[in-house]
Amino acid sequence: MNIKHLYWRVQSKYYKVSGQLLRWLPVKHNKIVLNNFHGFGYGDSPKYIAEEIIRQKLPYDLVWLVADMSMEFPPEVRKVKMQSVHASYELSTAKIIISNVKVALPYHKKRSQFYIQTWHGSMAFKAIEADAQDKLKPYYLKETKADSKLINLFLSSNSIQTQEIQTCFWYDGEIFECGSPRNDMLYKPQDYQDKIKAQLGITGKKLVLYAPTFRDDHRKDVYNLDMDRLKTYLDEHFGNDWHILVRLHPNVMNKNLFENKSYITDVTLYPDMQELLLISDVLITDYSTIIYDMAIMRKVILLYAPDLEDYKTNRGLKPVYFKLPTRINQSNEELLEYIGRFDVSKYKHELDEFLGTLQIFDDGKASERVVEKINSVINNR
Predict the structure, then answer these.
(1) What is the pLDDT of residue 257?
(2) For a surface tag, which of 25, 41, 261, 311 has the fewest beta carbons within 10 Å of its beta carbon?
């Protein structure tokens, strides 16, 4: 356990004790507390649930747990510092708690409180939770099992995810097959995409998003994508002028892994991953769940997994990963050779066949369904 994680554990202990001390406070029936990746910011499914509540002008007190109080939020959302007594108070008095990660939050859950788990992925390609329990840290297993006992509603995007929730998450409660609220963004029109590109200062270019996942052993040598050659190959074989977006996982977000160049934009701190997927023409990743999100938009997915054999051994990959209609490239040379002979029409035909094996619940209206459920809970229906 490194110093940073030890500090986090000590803070968490203090955080949990404050939650126990506040356990007798009454629940405020219009209060909703939301958490995204331990205070990462305004994004993922909790964001889109909050946006729908705001759109409907519902009289709810929206509270967001944040690691950095300087983060920007809509005026309808109150920010509260993560790992503070104030955060414990808000959790202890909330009617609805929404989180996209499974972590022991510092409150004593009352019978009248309702906890919605959105998770932060729509379909796992790597081993997760129970499937990877021999690879996960004991403290995490303890926390995630405890968290599962508190959940009232688990959201699902597709039939595969429903099976995962039933078999991997130590959870036997209600599964809401409503789609993933964060994927509602993927159904936005072109003018919305143009607005995001303008905000990033990237217009008139084709975009490739490089978004690898993290490694349990924190190794960095796997992030060795040759950016110069990649841009050259994309320009030559797909045409247009290509720009590369780099999005590192929160677990490696502080690593300076790539040089600053005019054709590269680091979007690691951009709060909304789905907006980046929406504006990107091509995704390059390794084992991330965002493969599914890109697939339902029928966009090009390129796999770059230089540590494939090690990852299979040390973490584990699900059979569905090897059924994806795109080649698993293990070196820069393989990836560039694959780009050079890539057949878009063949790929899309095979992608449609792959998606046809799933029952997909996403249709752009998941947030509406979740808010309807929240209304029912708050109004005791």
Answers:
(1) 66
(2) 261
